[in-house]
Design brief:
Two copies of one chain form a homodimer. Chain A is α+β, with helices and mostly antiparallel strands. The first copy, chain A, is about 35% helix and about 20% strand. In chain A, the strands form six sheets. In chain A, strands 4-3-2-1-5-6 form a six-stranded mixed beta sheet, with helices on both faces. In chain A, strand 17 and strand 18 form a beta hairpin. Chain A is elongated. The interface between A and B is large, with 51 and 51 residues.
Chain lengths: ~350, ~350
């Protein structure tokens, strides 16, 4: 990411200060700190103020912070907040923005107690997250590489899938191939669920073997250069019943209908509605128990969510997953998921992996 | 974990209610929810009250929650907090404990706005974390298996380490072996740092090759059955200079001194002081820029911390890392880390991997 991109992002946050009635912003949610500074360590806060952006971290990251960010870096041994408070006081910052959705209550309390009464705290919800929704060209390039890595990893393990292989060993294999293809790690715990276990939308891989004549659900993501990806494929193993083949067709139809509904200007609830409508036609709407998709980027779950009541309007440059599913307790489940980019005129499916009904 | 162990944990929390002046506790920090209920999903809150423990989650986890916990489970489609508020009101709970260190401000605000004025909120810091510090026999067994898995994974990759292998490929290999040995994943992003990069205590593995005649630092952890482990080893590759061999000896001496200082009743600052004292004798104290260790269990970083000003007294059954290090910018670094159990009379090093100076 070019250094000046981080500067531009901080500048954009600063531009919101008059409207938000702020003279500074204390950013504590790490992905937001990362987004605004480029710093990727596990402990940091950013105090953003005109002309004096200060990144606070600890001495483990002295060298790394100097390499990664153009902010002024303060490394703090021990508790960080007292030093943040000192900086706020020293720079006479009086209208401090805080992240309402993330700021732990204890931190809020500490700031209120330690700063003189003339300081005002404004709890701001979702401002930086909103900026993060629309991806820049360099972010999009990273997401595309993360998506490609993910698909290559699945390609590489497909030929090893067979009945008897343990779910956890296939998950290990997937993560390994993904790393070998350049991922820094999985974007979330890889899901490998065979047979009845595919009815659990967030199944953990177990020591159970992959069962013959059943479905196998794989949900995987590769993180690369800090950015995530997400894909689900459901495969038949051996001779799955005709029921599953038909149900698969319904889920695929639902997924394609949701994708069809994605374009700039529509509400994030629209693709969700489109997906549900198709499942309803097949009498399956009650088996689809989660929302249709979510944004991704620095985090695997970001705004916007494609859900029933979402009012956010889709914009060019947003990246979302589209992942309707059908879950039948005691029987199994199907989910089909792609990562999709909202384009100027509609959308583009980033995931290159085929999704036709496939039996191994 | 036996079901009744989770019940006992909730009972123990409830026993604190009179002292804390609570009639209920809303637990939102996921590892705490896991600790108290056994539920391992990624979205949940626990409302604990005498005779009515309610676990809130979403429909993705309906089946899993029923399998994992004996709590009453409520699955909520859409925002969870309104349902939590309704349950608090319905059960006439009026003195609600909240987790001060984790509760996002927005959640606090929502509860305050939606609940009638007669409700009191008590922000409680560290209560459940304090219970978690001392491990039960079944927790300890899990940690020991996580530690053994981690060491086996390092054993399995040692023979593959050679100059020219990329840091990221060795990290991928380590994680893969760890999974094959039974880990569900790494406890944190595996660190593989060669040469000058070992001066970064939290280095991310890069595409740089392992360099000959330098040090190689590996910091790795395996999560197994929900519990974590943590180990660092620093190896010589080829012919590292005598300076490094001598410095290694100083760090090892420091680590052993810290371990020697661990026994029930001593303050958590004591092992830290012991480690620093040895490094001071070698003129290296300023190069040791972090604290000496941390507790681990369901999380990779838990209380107690072994740091300068820690007043917590060590107790039998606590599990901590001991990991002094020396970091020389532009040159390299050394860290040696074991996972250690506080026993009745002293401590026991759980990590079986040798830590004598080793050159590959």
């Amino acid at each position: 990411m070019p250094d000046n991109e981080f500067q531009q992002r901080r500048a954009r946050l600063l531009e919101c200060f008059p409207t938000l009635q702020l003279d500074s912003f204390l950013v504590t949610h790490l992905p937001n700190v990362h987004y605004l500074t480029g710093f990727t360590g596990s402990n940091a806060m950013l105090l953003a103020a005109p002309g004096r952006d200060i990144l606070f971290t600890d001495p483990r990251y002295t060298i790394q912070a100097a390499q990664e960010t153009t902010c002024h870096v303060v490394t703090v041994r021990g508790p960080m907040l007292p030093k943040v408070v000192a900086a706020i006081a020293r720079h006479k910052l009086q209208m401090l923005g805080l992240e309402a959705a993330y700021l732990p209550h204890l931190t809020h309390q500490f700031l209120r107690e330690k700063l003189p009464l003339r300081h005002e705290f404004k709890l701001i919800a979702g401002q930086i997250e909103q900026h993060r929704m629309v991806k820049s060209a360099s972010e999009l390039a990273r997401i595309e590489r993360a998506v490609a890595t993910n698909s290559k990893a699945l390609d590489a393990v497909l030929k090893r899938i067979r009945p008897g292989l343990r779910e956890m060993d296939l998950a290990a294999e997937i993560d390994y191939r993904s790393r070998r293809e350049g991922a820094s790690g999985p974007s979330f715990e890889t899901i490998v669920a065979s047979g009845v276990r595919a009815a659990l939308p967030h199944a953990r891989p177990t020591a159970n073997p992959i069962e013959p004549n059943q479905l196998l659900l794989i949900d995987m993501g590769a993180t690369r250069e800090g950015y995530t990806s997400d894909m689900t494929r459901t495969l038949g193993i051996g001779k799955p019943s005709t029921f599953w083949k038909q149900t698969y067709r319904a889920v695929l139809e639902s997924q394609l209908a949701a994708i069809e509904a994605i374009r700039p200007g529509v509400k994030a609830s629209e693709p969700d509605r489109a997906a549900r409508q198709v499942l309803e036609q097949h009498g399956l709407e009650k088996t689809f128990t989660h929302s249709t998709g979510h944004g991704l980027g620095l985090e695997i779950h970001e705004a916007p969510r494609l859900g029933r009541k979402e009012k956010t309007k889709l914009l060019e440059g947003m990246v979302v997953t589209v992942e309707p599913g059908v879950y039948l307790e005691g029987k199994g489940g199907i989910r089909i998921e792609d990562t999709v980019l909202v384009t100027r005129t509609g959308c583009r499916i980033l995931t290159p992996t085929p999704k036709e009904w496939m039996v191994l």
